[in-house]
Specification:
It is globular, with a radius of gyration of 14 Å. The protein contains 2 helices and 10 strands, in the order E-H-E-H-E-E-E-E-E-E-E-E. The chain is mainly β and 153 residues long. The chain has a single domain (2-149), classed as 4-Layer Sandwich (Purple Acid Phosphatase, chain A, domain 2). The chain has helices at 15-21, 36-43; strands at residues 2-6, 26-29, 48-50, 67-72, 75-80, 97-99, 107-111, 114-118, 132-138, 143-149. The strands form 2 sheets. A 5-stranded mixed sheet has the order 3-2-1-9-10, with helices on one face.
């Protein structure tokens, strides 16, 4: 199974992002979507699970949850926008991963057996950070997360 992960599109969905997500079995958007059409374009690639970020306002965002537990194969991923809002111990709650955004800084780490993944920002470039997404390859026995830095010219 292949999970595509992105965050902080801020209303911009690039063709390079859609190409990088191609082949995903599902897509997780960790907030700051920016516009409803971003989700529509992602849904053309794969089923989408999304949470609301701090820039997601207006009627289109009213139905988005602030947090979401996403079933991924036999695992559960906890998704939120801002990691500082995490109010539970993911390991104790049986989560396999925590997916978040907000900082625009891509990162992959494991703590207490839980994957913590920030895919960085797939939207407008800010703070001289790369434009990127993440992918998680999932087999019966392991996760293989990776960051995909997009060549945007």
């Amino acid at each position: 199974m292949l999970v595509g992960v992105l965050s902080d599109t801020h209303g911009l969905i690039r063709s390079e992002v859609l190409s990088a997500l191609s082949g995903s079995d599902l897509i997780i958007h960790a907030g700051d979507i920016g516009k409803a059409d971003v989700l529509e374009k992602l849904r053309a690639v794969a089923p989408v699970f999304a949470v609301r970020g701090n820039v997601d306002t207006g009627f289109w965002a009213d139905e988005l949850p602030h947090t979401q537990i996403v079933p991924v194969a036999a695992h559960r991923f906890f998704v939120l926008h801002d990691i500082s809002q995490l109010a539970t111990d993911p390991a104790e709650a049986g989560m396999a991963a925590v997916v978040f955004g907000h900082s625009h800084k891509p990162s992959i780490e494991t703590r207490n057996g839980v994957l913590y993944l920030n895919p960085g920002s797939a939207g407008p470039q800010r703070f001289k950070l790369p434009i990127c997404i993440a992918r998680i390859g999932i087999s019966a026995t392991r996760f293989e997360p990776s960051l995909v830095v997009l060549d945007i010219r």
